[in-house]
Amino acid sequence: MAEVLPAERDLRRVIGDGESVPDGEVDGLADHDLVELYRSLVLLRTYDERSVVYHRQGRIGTYAIYWNHEAMQAGSVYALSDDDWIFPSYRESAIGLLRGMPASTVLSWWRGHPAGWWNPADYNVASICVPIGTHVPHAAGLAWGKRLRGENACAIAYFGDGATSEGSFHEGANFAAVMRAPLVLFCNNNGWAISTPVEVQTRAETLADKAVGYGMPAVRVDGLDILAVYEATHEAVARARAGEGPTFVEAVSYRAAPHATADDPKAYIDLARVEEEKKRECVGRYEGYLRRAGILTDEMAESIRAEAEQAMRDGIAAAEAEPPADPGLLFEHAYVDPPASFETDLAELRRSWARTWAAPEVSSVRPRACGTRSGRSAASTPRSPRPGSSAPPSGSAWPASAPSARCSTTRSATRRSTS
């Protein structure tokens, strides 16, 4: 059970420091579970670090870094069942990997390619939400629907500290509380909404205090402690399944990486604090816990890292092997009955496209019924087991340095974000 630290405003922590602070344990987690949590951490860390390299090589667009946020994602997802729904923000863009989503799908999303679309029902993972907090009402609505249908599933919505200043968060949280929707509101409080510190956003001592106004319980956890995150989420999920309504989880950390690849945090962040936080980053901290417990060996750690590295190599190769996107998709899905001007507009776009890339030869704009879309169907993208039950293949290590930048086959739109 996690230790509650009154001096840190009731922050919960399980993992010690290997010296003066002893390690704790979490009920219900066997050695196998502890190793699978480590596998998830390494997979997420590898995806994030490789994605930064791919961005620098010009192979993906602007990328929202989540380095040192992996414990929040892996710990909370492990507390869910496969029937539960995940509503990610852009900071959790790769969370689908923990549900068996191919790395190529997420990489294609960052490349702005239609291969990055997926059917949410295939993985019970909603589309990545870039507008701040707008997915909270969606998650509340889905959770309420599950309750009305008498289903045992719940939902979890991820958002940053900046989202708690948005009206969408208030609407979703209040609705979930009033309707006793089985929802976990998971707040990644890394202290910064891009360059806005959390103390400028609110007069509340903690973001968990906001839950009082909605009549729901809240818990604060060390966001770098995967076991504390798992335990808090597991308890919140149990409350949800019991019909007791939503729970607010505030996972506390300090952002130790740029907000995104387009951000230069040196202008506003405490660089000395960043260096201190890097010394206790979540993957190494949990690895130390497993080694002190005699669970993780050098051979196991190397094998798990190699699996993740090869998964990323395969993912970027598959993403780059996708044919260029059909520019007609921009027009096909705008109207059921497209106006006549679309024909000339699309023709001009193709001419412009051809001057930059070789545009594919496709038919003219076609009317399309409402609710249909191009891309892979549920039948062509079956849901895979979570990484713990079917490990990806092993492979070689990362390249030592990035080659010179080159253009990708498609360009990604720059996305505006505030958390």
Description:
The chain is an alpha/beta fold and 419 residues long. It folds into 2 domains: 3-317, Rossmann fold, CATH 3.40.50.970; 327-361, no CATH class. The protein has helices spanning 31-56, 70-78, 103-110, 120-123, 135-148, 167-178, 198-201, 226-241, 271-278, 282-292, 298-320, 329-332, 341-356; strands at 3-5, 11-13, 85-87, 155-160, 183-189, 192-193, 196-197, 218-222, 247-252. Strands 1-2-8-9-5-4-3 form a 7-stranded mixed sheet, sandwiched between helices. It has a two-stranded antiparallel sheet with strand order 6-7. α6 links the parallel β4 and β5. α1 (31-56) packs across α2 (70-78) and α1 crosses α11. The radius of gyration is 22 Å and the shape is globular.
Please outline what is shown here.
This protein is α/β, with parallel strands linked by helices. Helix content is 37%, strand content 9%. A seven-stranded mixed beta sheet has the order 1-2-8-9-5-4-3, with helices on both faces.
